[in-house]
């Protein structure tokens, strides 16, 4: 495979192999580029993310509040968060229901495994071991999968936070700045809103984003993967998220670390100055696109 010679923003040559992770993520800028690449602040605060949350709603016109998640080793530390409440006593919720309570109703929820249905629900975020009934494939065999081997493979490949370290999790709207900062930021949006967010992420520092699709239990692809790897993660919400969490048919879920959240919002601001804004104005399928493409593609 031929080597790729690229230049970074300081005009230094970088020799890398094509199709490697480094090749996909290296930042290259054209000669004479005037805007310096954006770098995240050394310390990201809840207040910064609260302001960014307002900007995100303005830029993308999303329907519900962006939220944050933070894992805790000691559940007692959750009590220090202003306004934290526990889910209804005696009820066991799915994680997607509790996420919905935060993004729809503005709740700041402190969650332990006792508030979840256990199994994969708490297991995806590391609050409990999923249990052999799930890991063996028994529970989903004959329902979501036609054989035990496929069901077990589904469990084996599912992104999860390893169990044993964390015993609590708080979810709160970013606007409240109560998580200072959260481990990850999340928001729901349409495909058009999501691609514009990704365009913002790529404005200064291009990288190709690859996302996973677990299928059922897709929360593993969003908060599970983002909490476990601190990688930006876009997911297709699954049946359970839509049936129990009330996720709308046209909604996708973005989960990302705070620096990526800020990076995307900063980038979308530049896109807007270049005349590229959401919602995208339709040009018309029966029109010659030359004039419009000359402005946006050169």
Largest sheet: 6 strands, antiparallel
Mean pLDDT: 89
Any low-confidence stretches, pLDDT <50, length ≥5? 1-12, 14-27
Helix share bin: 25-40%
Q: How many structural units, i.e. domains? A: 2
What is the string of SSEs from the N terminus onward?
A: EEHHEHEHHHEEHHEHEHH
For the largest sheet, list the strands in their spatial order: 4-5-3-6-8-7
User: How many angstroms separate the termini?
Assistant: 31 Å
- Estimated radius of gyration: 21 Å
Structure summary, number of beta strands: 8
Strand content: 5-15%
Multimer state: single chain
Number of helices: 11
Give a structural overview.
The protein has 298 residues and is an alpha+beta fold. It folds into two domains: 1-34, no CATH class; 35-273, no CATH class. Helix content is 32%, strand content 13%. The chain is built from eleven helices and eight strands. It has helices at residues 21-25, 46-60, 95-105, 119-123, 132-135, 148-156, 191-201, 223-229, 239-243, 258-273, 290-296, and strands at residues 3-7, 13-17, 67-72, 109-111, 168-173, 184-189, 233-235, 252-256. The strands form two sheets. The chain has a six-stranded antiparallel sheet. It has a two-stranded antiparallel sheet with strand order 1-2. β1 and β2 form a beta hairpin. α2 (46-60) packs across α10 and α7 (191-201) packs across α10. The longest helix is centred in the last third of the chain and has 16 residues, at 258-273. It is globular. It starts with a strand and ends with a helix. The model is unreliable at 1-12 and 14-27 (pLDDT under 50).
């Amino acid at each position: 495979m031929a080597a790729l010679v690229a230049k970074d923003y300081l005009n230094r040559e970088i020799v890398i192999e094509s199709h490697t992770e480094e090749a996909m993520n290296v930042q290259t800028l054209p000669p004479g580029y005037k805007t310096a690449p954006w770098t995240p602040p050394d310390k990201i605060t809840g207040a910064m993310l609260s302001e960014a949350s307002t900007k995100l709603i303005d830029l993308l016109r999303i329907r519900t509040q962006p939220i944050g998640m933070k894992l805790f080793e000691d559940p007692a530390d959750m009590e220090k968060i202003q306004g934290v409440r526990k889910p209804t006593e005696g009820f066991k919720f799915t994680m997607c229901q509790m996420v919905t309570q935060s993004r729809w109703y503005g709740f700041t929820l402190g969650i332990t495994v006792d508030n979840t249905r256990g199994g994969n629900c708490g297991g995806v975020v590391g609050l409990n071991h999923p249990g052999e009934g799930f890991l063996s494939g028994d529970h989903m065999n004959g329902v979501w999968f036609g054989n035990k081997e496929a069901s077990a493979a589904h469990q084996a490949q599912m992104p999860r936070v390893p169990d044993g370290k964390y015993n609590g999790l708080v979810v709160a709207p970013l606007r409240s700045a109560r998580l200072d900062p959260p481990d990850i930021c999340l928001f729901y949006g349409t495909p058009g809103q999501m691609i514009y967010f990704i365009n913002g992420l790529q404005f200064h520092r291009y990288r190709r984003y690859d996302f996973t699709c677990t299928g059922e239990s897709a929360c593993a692809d969003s908060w599970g993967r983002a909490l476990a790897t601190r990688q930006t993660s876009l997911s297709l919400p699954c049946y359970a998220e839509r049936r129990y969490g009330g996720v709308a048919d046209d909604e996708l879920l973005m989960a990302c670390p705070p620096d990526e959240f800020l990076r995307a919002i900063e980038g979308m601001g530049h896109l807007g100055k270049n005349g590229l804004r959401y919602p995208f104005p339709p040009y018309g399928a029966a029109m010659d696109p030359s004039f419009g493409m000359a402005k946006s593609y050169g």
